[in-house]
Each structure stands twice: as C-alpha cells, then as structure tokens.
C-alpha cells in the first residue's frame, strides 16, 4: 500500500515473471560455490534496501533478469539480445547465468522494460550501487547520463525522460580492465597468482526511488565524542520557498536530540548528550544511534530519510612508554586485523546474498580479530552497515591507479578516490584510509596524503601500506618517501611478522604478513595452481599461527600498534586463507584461533557462524590410500581428477603426469573452461593427450581460452620435444632442415617456435650471415608477438651486423 503512494512500478511480464524467469536463467558451472548460491534466483537477487544510511520507503528494486547483448564498441545499439543476465551479478560470474569475459574492444548492453505511472511533484531517481567500469544510461532511447569508474555509486534523475506506461531502460558498459586508465584493483583479463577474474558490468543493486521535487540529496555527519555532538550537514535539491530541516536522534528507541535548522546552514551541531553520557561505539560495544532527517515546508513533512550513526573517535597519542599508539575513544586499542579482499567463487565481487555478505565479517570477528583491512576494493553499502552493526574496525584501501600510470590514470584515480571519500564518510567502522599499496602506481605521495587528510581530518591516513616489503627477512622493495605526511609507518613482511621503523609522530603498523598456504581438497578454485608465501599442512597451521601471534605480542611491546594477517579467505589461486574460498572449511577452529588472538585484543560478543574444521590427516597418507584404489583399478574421471590434485599437493611429479594424462584422455567435448584450464596446466609434451585438444582450441572460434596463451603453451611443448634435444650438444652443427620437417605437423605454433629458436641460435653464435635472413622472416611473420625490448635487440643486430 505504501509503495503505491509514491510510484507504481510493475515488470512488463507481470504475474508471469517468476515462471519465465526461472526458465530463462540458471547459474553457470563453477568448480566450487558457496552454500548461499543455491538460495539465489531471479526473484530474490539481493532484495534488501541497498543504502542503510539513507533509507526511504518509496523505492523499487530492479535486481533480477535483464536482457543482455555483447557487441563491438563501434555498434551503436544491439539489434537483438543474446539472452538473460541476472543483475547484479557481474558478467563473468557463475550467478550471472552468462560467465563470459568482456573484452576491451566490446560493449555489454543491458535492457529492461518497466511500467511507471507518472505523478505530479514527484521525481524518479535511477540508482546504481556500482557498474564496472564505464556506463551510459538511456531511457526510452534518450541518453540521460552515465558514470566512469567501477567502484562507486551514482544516481540519475530520469523523470523527464519517462512516460506513463511502458518505459525502456538501456545501460551500455565498457570495461578495459588493466588495459584501461581507471582503477581496476585485483581484476585482470588473464588472472593468476594474486590477480583475479574481472567483474564487468552491473555488480551492485539497481533501484528506483521516488522523491519530492524538493528532497534530501545527501547527508554527512562526523561525531565529536569530546563535545557530545554530531556534526551534521544536509544537502537539499530543488528548494522551493521557506523550508526547514529537522534532525532527531534516538538511542534504543528513546529520543535523545531534536533540532531544527535552515537548509542554508552548511553545518550544524546536533547535541547528543554530555560527553560523559555518550554511548560510544567500539568493537566490544558497537552501539549505534538511530537518526531521522526531515525536510519540512509549511509545517508539513516533504521528505524524510532514516539513518544511523556511531559516536567514536580515532587518534594517535603517545603511551607511557613513549610509543605512538592508535587510540579509539581516547583509549589505546591494538588493531588486530586481516586482509579481506571481498571475492566470491560464485559471484566474484558480488556476494550471493546479504547473509553471505555479513558472514565474512562475523567469521573474522569469531576468529578473534577486531580489524579488517578492506583490500583494493570498495564494498556495497550494506557491507559497511554490517561492519558498523557487528563492531569491526576497518582500514579502507583506495583502489590503486593502473600500475603502469598511462595517460589519464592519475586523474581517474583522484576522481575515484574523491568519490570514495564522499561515499564512505558516514560509517563509524572506517577508521583509516589507505592511500597506496606496495608502490602499485604510487605517485605524488606527499600531496595526495595531505589531500586525503584535509578531506577527512576525522580519520587516520596510511599513506603507503608496504612501502618497504620483506620476504623471508630480506628487503625486496625499498620505499621512496618514508611514509611522508602519513600517520603510520607500514611495512609488509612475509611470512613472519617484524616491526617497521619507529618514526616520531607516526604509529608503527604491519600492513601485511602471514600468507601461509594450506590446501583443502574439494574446496579449491583451481587445484592445479595454488599460491602462498609458504606451504604447510592443516595439522601444522595452528602451531605456525601461534608462533606468529607470540611474535606479535613481543613486537607490540616494542611499539607495534596494528597488524594485518593475510588473509581470512582463500581467493582463486591464493590458498593462504584461514577459511576456504567457498567459506566451508576453517583451517584453525574458531575457538582455537580466537584464544590465540585474545592475547592482543578484546572483541566483545562472538557472532554465531558455522564452518567445518579442516581434516588434519597427513595429505601423503590420504594420497597413498587413493593410489591403492587406483592400482586396484579405480579410474573414473571424478576419482582421477581428485587423485591428480592430490598428487600435485604431495609433489609426486611422476604421479601428476601419469594421472593427469589419463584423466585428460577420458574427457570429451564440450570442455568447460575449468577443464580446459586443467588441460593447459598439465600439458607439457606433444605426446600428451592434452596437446591435440589445445591444437583444436586454436581452430575453435568459440574457444573459452585466450588464443595467444594456448599458442605459447603449444610452442613450449614443441620446443621441449622437437628442438631442445638438438641444441644440447654444442660441438656439432644443428641440422635445422631436419627439425623443420619434424615440426610441419604442428602448424603456425611449430613454425613460430622454430623461427624463434633458429634466430636466437644464430644470434648467440654471432653467425650473422645465417642470422640475418632467418631473423628477417621471424620478425616479419611474428614480430607482433615479441616484447618491444627484445624486438629492438633483434632489429639492431640485423642493422649493425
């Protein structure tokens, strides 16, 4: 009933939406998925109100099935749509129902029809939580606005483009990922190691909102616990006549403050209580005040929003020993954190459900941490809401600029950073901004650090996390600016913790350490490609973690005020989390890791979360028992796959080769992307069964693999089998004619590696007479595949010799 007062919006399919939607969509296969994936459907995709700090009742969720098309960038508009995509799950995700990469030369188009009844003196806002990366929005064929940058929200007033009845919404998206100028975070087109699958397109909630002609457009508040006030700023759109703003604060339903002021007032002080009576927010007691803000005209409420705030203070002061410390609410509070990257096996950057989104924070708190470093990602508003409600301190990274700093990257980074500062200002959980990470595209560090501090003096600024990096105690990356103008000195030390330099006026923190890899069979994104700074078994992880925690306790006595463990959850090829990527297995039981962390921090109420404890059996014993079954004749494909993975985990190289080849030989078309990746990772010879499969992939226009990557894989195998053996005896001349005949069957891949090997052979022998003609052929045919520096060497040799 209340919804109709503001706006009537019904999907064109009306009552038949549900049945048609179920028929048109299903999640794509994935190696692993979370328990929440099965709850996702077109009728319940992230239905919660997406903006908890500015809530209105007159809204309509547009998540669900949209039409989609992927076309070239030069196409003005698609002539037809290729199917349905489930919004807000990114194109590349399983839950989108598509699971397809968006290439830099392509555009992704979204289409949805809605029915709207226009109402006088009402405006309609179309809101997007985030679209990665560049978006243009059309309503009824009219371009009405857009946004650049993949991590921040935007809103467009679409009222003037609407008509009574059916309306068409189109969204055009392009995403060049690391080939573009905009911050892309950990997303890359070819994920590996610490870089992950992209999340192109709409990846946060889309919703319509009905507002009056004059309405509240933005609120900003900053607590001051020493004065017992909330500094409040309210922006209004379309003020007509004499209006007032009313702000009412509540504590547990009881009104504690009520103030009216003029919209012309840029900043007002809302008195909450005497400082001694203010109920403070902290991880131990995450108390939140409720807030209502009303726009009043002629004695009537024109617009009203609901919000909340927390009264907390963050600062740096010296302790009795003379060390600079992080003080929360005027008390020293050690920041014991973990590096949370916010990726999901089924939704990629989008959590499958709101319950899943909250689970991550609950699990981290249940492990005994009081801090999350949100790493190179901006989360949806509801993630920060859960952090506020549950009581979690947050160090918020900005999404780093493109590391190569192409033209325009600096401007794009600063625009995205300013939007991030504005968007996240009101969350009490955020206590620190992290400007740069490990020199990834860092520039103008002093200017930008001071700029962030000027934009938000109420928080700490970590100007450079990991400006110095230590691996196994050795310095591998040296800082340039020594944390100039930063509130912190911050190093990264893997795997074991150590203290950063003690610089007067700066607090000492350890921005990253740990990264201990533990593989859990059947719970891995990519079992053949696991990464961590060190590898241990599940049975020994607790002991290793206990040693590192004891080291932290000693370092804390020497001035350390915060530490960030890498990491709470496995992510794609990284299997160094405390919990598996699917959130099913915890590698150290909750109560046991919490008992270790309690030496450093107090977390208050422990959230109720569930995950199975890891199997502490010796992987070699498990593998040995599986090999017994194999020897006795078990060879179904499911078993062979698990056996191949187990062989790799215990470093049985002969076993990996034998079993992987047997498994690959049993596979049949069509091959999933996961199976093709397994074939890629386990093909090393032209005699391996995977070699012919990969050859066929080069001819398959619908291949799920990147062709150049396949070609290089084939070239390596051809070189190993057909060329390298003839190069080992340096006392005899190589018969290149015989080699050329032997690789004819391998096509272009064989020719390219043959010409490359022959060119390098004569270059190394300084046989310029034979070098020049073969190098000329090689460069003319395959020069586009050579890195520029190497190409210049070859060309220079041709010119000068």
TrEMBL record:
Task: Give a yes or no for keyword Ligase in this entry.
Answer: no
Cite the Glycoside hydrolase family 2 catalytic domain residue spans from the record.
356-463
Superkingdom in the source lineage: Bacteria
**Where in the numbering of this chain does the Beta-mannosidase-like galactose-binding domain appear?**
106-179
> What InterPro entries would the database entry show?
Beta-gal/glucu_dom_sf (IPR036156), Beta-mannosidase-like_N2 (IPR054593), Galactose-bd-like_sf (IPR008979), GH (IPR017853), GH2_Domain-Containing (IPR051913), Glyco_hydro_2_cat (IPR006103), Ig-like_fold (IPR013783), Ig-like_GH2 (IPR006102)
Instruction: Enumerate the spans annotated as Glycoside hydrolase family 2 immunoglobulin-like beta-sandwich domain.
Output: 215-312
A GO BP entry: carbohydrate metabolic process
Stored Pfam families:
Glyco_hydro_2 (PF00703), Glyco_hydro_2_C (PF02836), Glyco_hydro_2_N2 (PF22666)
Q: Which UniProt keywords apply?
A: Glycosidase, Hydrolase
Kindly give the Gene3D superfamilies that the UniProt entry links to this protein.
Answer: Galactose-binding domain-like, Glycosidases, Immunoglobulins
Tell whether Chloroplast is among the UniProt keywords.
Answer: no
For molecular function, the Gene Ontology terms on record are:
hydrolase activity, hydrolyzing O-glycosyl compounds
Name the PANTHER family for this protein: BETA-GALACTOSIDASE (PTHR42732), BETA-MANNOSIDASE (PTHR42732:SF2)
Q: Which family is it part of?
A: Belongs to the glycosyl hydrolase 2 family.
- What is the protein's given name? Glycosyl hydrolases family 2, TIM barrel domain
